[in-house]
């Protein structure tokens, strides 16, 4: 599995619309997802070791962010034909087992990932209440292993967005597994 980094934050870039099914088949849109202070859009999957390493802390952080007015959605855009662990059935299983506090959406056509220019899992897009991009950085300083003392980059950045509407000027890019694109 090759590691890949997404591009730096393009401050002010407007969040593209989406309307994707969650693990129960209910369609969830961008407009209904945004919280009073902003929205965190995460591209994740079940099989990625980078995602697995941060998932318990990610769940705790997005729960805290919700109390600050930042809602969260997770989007899985991998092609599950080559990665069965990322199938809709396994997404539902993971969502239920961990009681995910956010909708876990399936981007079957991969069009949303392409529109967002998502490149890896995890890939984070932090928007303010006007749906302007303010954060495109890492979760924290850990990689595939859990860091004992987390820097909480994502949490601190989104807390700042909730308070000021703006993300930090200095951001460290995320790192993760490449999105598994369908072969035409």
From TrEMBL:
Pfam families cross-referenced by the UniProt entry: AhpC-TSA (PF00578)
InterPro entries assigned: AhpC/TSA, PRX-like1, Thioredoxin-like_sf, Thioredoxin_domain
Domain of life of the organism encoding this protein: Bacteria
Ranges of residues in domain Thioredoxin: 9-160
Entries under PANTHER family matching the protein: OS07G0260300 PROTEIN (PTHR43640), THIOREDOXIN-DEPENDENT PEROXIREDOXIN (PTHR43640:SF1)
Protein name: Thioredoxin family protein
